[in-house]
Structures are given as structure tokens and as C-alpha cells.
Design brief:
By secondary structure, the protein is α+β, with helices and mostly antiparallel strands. Among the domains are: 204 residues, no CATH class; 98 residues, no CATH class. Helices cover 45% and strands 8% of the residues. It has 22 helices and eleven strands. A four-stranded mixed β-sheet has the order 3-4-6-5. The protein is globular and about 95 Å long. 40% of the residues are buried.
Length: 629
């Protein structure tokens, strides 16, 4: 830049005070929240670590001056509307629409913006559900008709309003929007249906992120009407209030003095309290619809426990593809592409406790047909596991409690029940992979050992490429293991680094989040180790611990012996373990052949095919079968 280009933005520093002198509440000096560390990583707010601890500090001086000018102009437009004869309702509505345009422009005007180098364009602030530090930010030109400019943002709002008008161009009741706590029930039996998309533990700090817009909306709208004045009475958005035991319900330890357990307990108890309020507000034949797209096992256990404690039984479930394929979360961390919609009805208050064997049998009966339907519908990966959880819950939630027949006085916990469900689901997937989609195992039968089951699930969904931690943890839990055991003890997985924190280089609407915002169950990524990289000496061999040798370890051991050309050891290994007569071993090899072929792993595919031919060969010499002549 030349001297003039440097001097102009510097001069903006001297005009900031004047620019905000007429604006209510002045410069946005409200604090940026520090936030708490989450399951998926650290706090989503990293700017305070670098001194950007107040909202005005995340804007450059000329951005602040420009934004103040727009605030002042929109407020003046309100006065002009009144002078032009618009009534109070029209003025209020048009002012709100103008503010929507301002808020959209605000997303494109901060020092958090990254460059989108692939298309030579500016990014926007909330590419993720986070406020990360950005060292090389881009500045929009808000007065120009370009991306991030006022006119383009206002046009987008206008198009949205037209779409909304078309969607509501029918005879329908006028909706009522209430700004109140979810546990404030208007009256018992008031509703036929309640639909809710609840917060997911620490996935998204909604209120803290909202403050980015709230502090500006408060300056713009707080004097628009009594309703707006009440809504913007507080300097910041609603947080959890310990004095009233009410407020925003998320898992954020920073609101409990850093006590993670207190925060988690508060969230879980709050969820149960909210569902109980829903139970009271529904008519006897009413329905509660819960939208859930979280793939962390703990979150599902909490949700199910809250549903049962509140007196509901799951009456139906529908996996609905609600997520944009281009979202950063979908691209970078394999978040659920489908939301699971649980339809719940009130449980008979006279219902008695059930018994574990009966409940599991009912679950297995109801889930089998649903699994086929979901598979045929093309649902795969983590979506398939969680889509099947809904139908399974119908059997468990039918009873206020489930007793264990073999342990008098003990109850089958939600976690234990869901463990049974997940295992049936993963065995179904493995059965389909092994049989090329022609059959599946009977519930309760495990065609493969836990390690091989995990390997095949992971390989089927992600191949040998990097996979987000979330699905890896989910599959590991479903196979009664932890991802740490797979890395350290079995050496099937390798940690391949943390989830990248980078801006979206695509559509401006992408709304991904930081490392899947905790919904994946953890940050970082994993990769399956290739057959040639598994070099530990005990691979495929008996150990002093006496644990079962995973079938996939036996395949990889044979492949290594095969490549070494040691015919005697190949034959001895096959005979000692009866692998020549093992149908499931042959199915596994065929499944791996097809998988490696689809991935383009030519060497692996070739070795497996030659091993397969050797197993089938009759009368061929070992040398010929090994291709060593």
C-alpha cells in the first residue's frame, strides 16, 4: 500500500467517538465471553487470549466507523418512515427488516474474516460456530454493491421475505412468538403437538455467539417499541442464572466456576425438567416431537433418560435428511446428514416396570425391519446407527423402568440398553458388507470379533483416508471398545492430527463449526493402519493374555507371509487356525478385495486375490499359486 492508503484507515481512529455519540449505549464495550473447554476441543472463543476481549475490539477502526454510520442511517430511516405516513406497525416491521440486512452485513465486517483465495473473495465471520483468532483478515467494502456490501445483504433479506410470503400464502393461524423460558407452561393440556430441537450438551454456545449480533441489535432496536425494549433490557443475551436456576441450557463449565460435573448435571437435570413441562402442556393424546442430530453416545443417553423420566414413550422415529451437503461440518467432520425425529406420546401412568429379556426381545423384533428399510433408503455411516436408535427406544421407553431378571433389585440402565442396540446395528452392517447386501445376521449373533467388526465398519465408511474422531469413537463404543484401545493395544488405528480450523472456501451460507462443535465426540482424526504398516511382532499370533486373535489380524499376517514368499509358514498358519474351512474368513477376504478395488489400492487387492485363489486351488503347487515361479 502507498502512504495515502495507510493514512486513510488510520484517520478513522480519531472519529470513532463522534460516530457513536448519537447511538444508544455508545461503543460496544460489552465483554466477549471466554467460554469453557468442550469435548471437541478448547473454548470456541480464542480472541480474548490475544486481548480482543470486548466486542468493539474485533473490528478495525474504519469498520467501526462504517458500522456506526449504518446504524445511524437506519435509525434516521425510521423517522423518515413516520414522516411519510407509515403507521407504527409498518415502521416497526420495516425497521426490523432493515436491521436484518445490517446483521447480515455485520457477518461480513469484522477482523475475523478470512480470504477465500480460490475465488478471490472475502469470507465471513461465522464460518464455524466459533470466534477464532485470525491473523490475516480481509475487509469488505460495505458501501459497494459487492459481497458483504449493504445492498447485496439487503437484497438477500428481500429475497428471503418473498420466499416466506410464498410459503405462508395460505389460510393459517397467525403464529405467536413468546420470549420466555421453556419450562414456563402457559396452562396444562394447552397443546396438541410440541416440536423442539434441543441444545446438545456443549456443542454450540448459542447465547455467547448471539452476542455478536445482540450488542448491535440492542443499539438499533431497543427503543423501537415496548416489546423490543423488554427483549433487549440486558446488556448481553440470556445466560444461565444460578439465582433463579433458569436460563440458557447448555453444558458450559465457565458458568459454574469451572466445575465440569456441576455443569453437566445441570444440563441433564434441565433437559428432564423441560420435557416434564412439555408433558404437562400436552393434551392426553398429544405428541412431543424431538429433533436430534447428535452422535455423541452420552448425549443420546441423556436424551432418552429425560424422555422416560418425563413420562413419555417413543411412538415413532424418522431419519430426515435436513443438513446441507456443503456445510463445513458435513465436509470436514462427518456430522449427521440426517436428523432423527423422535415422536413421543404420554406413557400410561399405570404402566409397570418391564424385564430386560422381554424388552430386548421386543427391541430386536421391532428393529430388524426398520434396519432393512433404512439401509434400502441409502442411510449409511453414523446416520444409520442413530437412525435405528429411535425404533429401538419404542420397546425400552414403554416401561417406566426395566428390571434385570438375573440381578434382583438392579435396573437395566439406558447406556446398557443402547449398547445392545448399537451392537445389533453394527452387526447388521457387517453382515450386509460380508454378504454383499444379500443377508444380515440374526440379532444376537456376532459374525465377527469386535476388532474386525470395527475395522470393517471403518473401512466401509472411510476407507484408508482420515476419518473424524466422532464416528471412530461411536463405532468403537458400539464394538465395546475405546478408540484408545484401538490405537495403543490393537494398533488398528493411528492418530493423524487435530481437526483443521480453516475457513470455508465455498458458499457463504456454510455454517460449520469448530471440530464439529463437540458433536463428533472429540477433536482430531484417525486413520486405519494399512496391512503393511502393522508391524508389531505379535500380529495374528497368540499372546500370553489369551485374548482371541482378531480375524483381520490373521488376514494381515497372512498377507505379510504371502509377500515374503514363505509357503511353509503360510500353510502352517492356515492349518493351525482352520482358516481353509472358515466361511466367514473367506467372506472377509472377499469383502476386503472389493473394498480395496473400490479404493484403488491395487497392491492390496492383488495380494488378497492371489491369497483367495490359493485357498481355492486344488492340485496347484505352492510356488505357482504364489506366483513365484
Amino acid at each position: 500500500p502507498v502512504a495515502h492508503e495507510i493514512d486513510v484507515p488510520e484517520s478513522a481512529k480519531t472519529t470513532i467517538s463522534d460516530a457513536f455519540s448519537k447511538i444508544p449505549f455508545g461503543l460496544p464495550t460489552e465483554p466477549i465471553p471466554v467460554g469453557a473447554s468442550r469435548q471437541g476441543g478448547g473454548s470456541p472463543f480464542t480472541t480474548p487470549l490475544y486481548g480482543l476481549d470486548q466486542w468493539f475490539k474485533i473490528y478495525s477502526p474504519r469498520q467501526l466507523v462504517a458500522l456506526a454510520c449504518f446504524v445511524d442511517a437506519v435509525r434516521e430511516a425510521r423517522q423518515e418512515l413516520s414522516k411519510a405516513g407509515y403507521d407504527a406497525a409498518e415502521t416497526e416491521a420495516l425497521s426490523a427488516f432493515l436491521q436484518c440486512g445490517f446483521d447480515r452485513m455485520l457477518d461480513f465486517n469484522s477482523s475475523i474474516l478470512a480470504w477465500i483465495t480460490s475465488v478471490e473473495a472475502i469470507g465471513h465471520t461465522f464460518v464455524r460456530f466459533a470466534l477464532p483468532m485470525n491473523w490475516d483478515f480481509s475487509e469488505a467494502a460495505p458501501i459497494n454493491d459487492v459481497r458483504g456490501g449493504w445492498w447485496m445483504c439487503l437484497d438477500a433479506v428481500g429475497e428471503s421475505i418473498e420466499t416466506i410470503l410464498r410459503a405462508t400464502n395460505s389460510i393459517a393461524p397467525v403464529p405467536t412468538v413468546l420470549n420466555q423460558s421453556a419450562i414456563d407452561c402457559p396452562e396444562a393440556g394447552a397443546f396438541d403437538v410440541i416440536v423442539t430441537d434441543p441444545p446438545y450438551y456443549d456443542a454450540i454456545p448459542y447465547s455467547d455467539l448471539m452476542d455478536y449480533f445482540y450488542v448491535w441489535d440492542r443499539r438499533q432496536l431497543s427503543d423501537l417499541s415496548d416489546a423490543y425494549r423488554e427483549a433487549f433490557a440486558s446488556p448481553l443475551g440470556p445466560k444461565w442464572r444460578n439465582d433463579t436456576n433458569d436460563g440458557e441450557l447448555i453444558d458450559d463449565a465457565s458458568r459454574f466456576g469451572g466445575d465440569k460435573q456441576a455443569s453437566k448435571t445441570n444440563y441433564e437435570e434441565g433437559m428432564a425438567k423441560a420435557f416434564k413441562a412439555c408433558h404437562t402442556a400436552l393434551r392426553p393424546e398429544g405428541r412431543l416431537v424431538i429433533v436430534f442430530a447428535h452422535k455423541q453416545p452420552d448425549a443420546w443417553e441423556t436424551l432418552v433418560s429425560a424422555i422416560i423420566k418425563a413420562g413419555f414413550v417413543v411412538d415413532g422415529s424418522w431419519p430426515i435428511q435436513t443438513e446441507q451437503a456443503a456445510r463445513m461440518r458435513a465436509q470436514g467432520s462427518a456430522a449427521l446428514a440426517s436428523s432423527v425425529w423422535l415422536v413421543c406420546k404420554k406413557r400410561d401412568p399405570l404402566a409397570k416396570a418391564g424385564w430386560d429379556a422381554q424388552v430386548l426381545k421386543e427391541m430386536e423384533t421391532s428393529i430388524t425391519a426398520k434396519l432393512r428399510d433404512f439401509w434400502d433408503a441409502g442411510i449409511r455411516g453414523p446416520d444409520f446407527v442413530w437412525a435405528a436408535t429411535g425404533p429401538a427406544m419404542e420397546a425400552y421407553s414403554r416401561y417406566p423402568a426395566v428390571k434385570k431378571a438375573s440381578e434382583p433389585g438392579q435396573l437395566m440402565a439406558v447406556a446398557e440398553f443402547l449398547s445392545h442396540v448399537r451392537r445389533i446395528v453394527v452387526d447388521f452392517v457387517v453382515g450386509r458388507v460380508l454378504s454383499h447386501g444379500q443377508s444380515e445376521p440374526t440379532p444376537g449373533d456376532h459374525p465377527l470379533d469386535d476388532i474386525t467388526t470395527y475395522y470393517l465398519l471403518h473401512r466401509h465408511d472411510f476407507g484408508l483416508k482420515e476419518a473424524p474422531a466422532g464416528p471412530c469413537i461411536l463405532y468403537a463404543v458400539s464394538c465395546s471398545m475405546s478408540e484408545r484401545e484401538l490405537v495403543d493395544q490393537y494398533e488398528v488405528l493411528a492418530k493423524s492430527g487435530s481437526a483443521a480450523e480453516q475457513g470455508e472456501a465455498g458458499d457463504e451460507e456454510a455454517d460449520g463449526d469448530d471440530e464439529d462443535a463437540g458433536t463428533s465426540g472429540g477433536g482430531g482424526k484417525f486413520k486405519l493402519k494399512t496391512w503393511s504398516a502393522r508391524k508389531h511382532r505379535s500380529l495374528g499370533l497368540e499372546t500370553t493374555s489369551g485374548r482371541t486373535i482378531p480375524l483381520v489380524d490373521q488376514v494381515h499376517k497372512l498377507m505379510q507371509l504371502w509377500v515374503a514368499g514363505d509357503v511353509v509358514k503360510v500353510n502352517d498358519y492356515l492349518d493351525a487356525r482352520g482358516l481353509r474351512r472358515s466361511q466367514v474368513f473367506a467372506q472377509l477376504i472377499q469383502a476386503l478385495i472389493e473394498q480395496s478395488r473400490a479404493e484403488g489400492s491395487a497392491e492390496e487387492c492383488s495380494i488378497l486375490e492371489r491369497l483367495q485363489n490359493y485357498l481355492k486351488s486344488v492340485g496347484s503347487t505352492a510356488q505357482a499359486a504364489l506366483g513365484l515361479e
